[in-house]
Amino acid sequence: MASNPPAQCCTVGVKHEGEPTGTTIKVGQYDAYVAEPKGKKHEGAALLYVPDVFGIWQNSQLMADQFAANGYYTIIVDIFNGDALSLERPKDFDLKKWLTQGSDGKNPHTKEAVDPIVELSLKYLKEQGFTKVGAVGYCFGAKYVVRHYKDGIKVGYVAHPSFVDEDELAAITGPLSIAAAETDEIFPTEKRHKSEEILAKVGQPYQINLYSGVVHGFSVRCDTSKKIERWSKEQAFLQAVAWFDEHLL
């Protein structure tokens, strides 16, 4: 495995301040959040934002808005089918059970359940006329960026990835950028080095940036009152934008 399965560190974080400016739509039966450029936009280019376990919430919406502010039509589709996590959960919350069964026992968040939603999302973007489709994936969502180059993703960016299998990483067909945390039990040093080894063999353009002083989840859920965390979050975002500007446009 190129990164370990999600753990409790995937389910903690800080809600960020701001007012989302996008709109809510339906993609098939699933809720989605759309952020559209209000000024200069990159014609034909769109980003599919595949979120962490918190799904469509304040932080992911604000980040989608920022991608839109940089010229990219951005959409987040509810890959958890109405069952994303919240920051406040019981102390005995069972992450593994939630992943395999969902909160009600009938709504799993396995690849068999998530893959069709990602495929539908990419189909939607194609139907809207977008010909240059990139994808960003955070934590849980990273796996589904890596898995779906075959379904139309041309360029990918992932941050603190979890649950990515080595064969999935080896199968990518386009450029991939990774933002990694210095302290990360899900994507530790040995997994990062293994990913580098795999990507070197794949032969596609790749980038792995390591941010010191931060932990798993920093690019979405960090404490922005702490200078090093805020700076790393901002730099990881700029890393993504620069990557798409170079390889998608």
Give structural notes.
With 249 residues, this protein is an alpha/beta fold. The chain has one domain (8-247): Rossmann fold. The chain has helices at 58-69, 95-101, 111-127, 142-147, 166-170, 189-202, 218-221, 227-247; strands at residues 23-27, 30-35, 45-50, 73-77, 132-138, 155-159, 176-183, 206-215. Strands 1-2-4-3-5-6-7-8 form an 8-stranded mixed beta sheet, with helices on both faces. Strand 7, helix 6 (189-202) and strand 8 form a beta-alpha-beta unit. It starts with 22 loop residues before the first strand and ends with a helix. The model is unreliable at 9-15 (pLDDT under 50). Residues 31-247 form the Dienelactone hydrolase domain. Pfam families: DLH. This is Alpha/beta-hydrolase. InterPro entries: AB_hydrolase_fold, Dienelactn_hydro. It comes from Cryphonectria parasitica (strain ATCC 38755 / EP155).
